[in-house]
């Protein structure tokens, strides 16, 4: 890798997966520690002035955007301002910006898979913030790659998977939607995609734009929950054998979560040659790592 790569958010689950995978391929990252209060416009300005990388992979707010149960409007607004400043700095220093986004930019009103050409209409605060961030990056920094991911699953104790497994240890019903659809995407698979994109950008291929990536085989939260419990039961005692089906409209997060969140991944395949991997094949190592951490 000729490019000097800077990773913001090297301490979170996706950042760690990226560092792990990079090490296997002899790809290193500058992964600076964030300031005590997190990255803001001033600290980012200082950082890029001092380091001048060739590309920045911005995973600084990964947990809030992809794993947290809720995020305050104030916090999202601060993150928006920081990414806007980061995009300005990348444009000023001619640095490539690799920026994650999410299926949450869509409202889930259509039953067919969303492509990059479909107009975003986000539902909740997170989706709205991510859509504004996308627009800001596009307008400010032409040398960008925006990666919209599906339902990301990682091994963090308090992430989406961790919260589900904690509930499964208690003798209680877990209600999951059987009429909501999306693509589970293990964090290692997301890291593989980012590495593949970086390799091609390293060859000076100007493949700027927005791309979708999500694990192969769309499914429902109910079927995903069943698959997780089946796999996890061999590693750790659980109190329930299967989740209970419930309608999307009855779920507490129905106003924020798109009912249909399946992403079409043809563009990333045709542009970068990245093929979707089956999410089921990533569950064993993900759960093994989760229980080893826990």
UniProtKB/TrEMBL annotation:
Pathway: Carbohydrate biosynthesis; dTDP-L-rhamnose biosynthesis
Reactions it catalyzes: dTDP-beta-L-rhamnose + NADP(+) = dTDP-4-dehydro-beta-L-rhamnose + NADPH + H(+)
EC number: 1.1.1.133
Keyword vocabulary terms for this entry: NADP, Oxidoreductase
GO molecular-function term, one example from the UniProt record: dTDP-4-dehydrorhamnose reductase activity
Top-level EC class: oxidoreductase
Coiled-coil ranges from the UniProt annotation: none
Domain of life: Bacteria
A single GO cellular-component term on record: cytosol
Function summary: Catalyzes the reduction of dTDP-6-deoxy-L-lyxo-4-hexulose to yield dTDP-L-rhamnose.
Protein name in UniProt: dTDP-4-dehydrorhamnose reductase
